[in-house]
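Subject: mismatched residue count in predicted assembly?

I count 282 residues in my input, but I want to confirm that the predicted structure covers every chain. Input:
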Amino acid sequence: MASARGEATVQTPAILTFIVADIAAFGLFFAFFMIGRGAQVALFDRSAALLNADVGMLNTLILVTSSWLVVLAVDGARRGDRRTVRTFLALAFVVGAGFAVTKVIEYGDKVSHGITLLTNDFFMFYFVLTGIHFLHFLIGMGVLAMLWFKAGQEAVDGPLFGWIESGGLYWHMVDLLWIVLFPMLYLLGRR
Amino acid sequence: MKRSARGTANLVWLSLSVATLCSWWMAEHHGAGVWTVLLVMLIAAAKARAVALHFMELKAAPLIWRLVFEGWVLLNTAMIAGLYWFTQARA
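Triage response: the counts match. Full output below for your records.
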């Protein structure tokens, strides 16, 4: 949490406040899902069995790896190493893009089988929760691209450092949420 | 972040990947019987905690931030596992 100069950055607590509010909202969604599931366990488990857990697992690996690459980018920024920062931000973006690809395939597969968010309560939760998470993912990808661009223009251990660190924290949040979302949606009903 | 800290990041990434594969395998093969889902949620909690402490570097943050994130992980995974257990017991 220390900056390039060893002081606390100004931007970091601000983004953390936002992240806490965001994950708290997701916590509520998780609770609504579990309460909804409690009322229709058989339906929820039957529906969850239609999800592709392999793809869900792959998406976890993608986000975890992309998150790790961002850690290495932030580490490079701390040392003022612009090349390292840009390389790892680009890698994090490319790996992260895999999440969009699998998600689009997954949504397409569901819709082609006539499964939409109106199918039942489970799929309502599935599409809304993964959809909101996907929006967070898209924002994160935009941030990574913006940081990569900015890192090509200015020093990474100056004012930009706070942005790189904050962008990294946001990206880790996308990872953090998926780590809980994936087993809850995909794995609870496994028999 | 010193070189050793980068080493920590690599190790955390490796652990997260292995844990992901383990919980997926367990869920697919029902590897731990009736305890499978609880174990899967426990692994998810450990993974979420690792991301918060090491990737988000909350280990080095003021204690209050660390507690908020650790509390979030604990509360949510306990809620999911608890309500799961409750509905299974009733079924």
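The domain at 21-187 of chain A is CATH 1.20.120.80 (Four Helix Bundle (Hemerythrin (Met), subunit A)). Marking this ticket as 'not a bug'.
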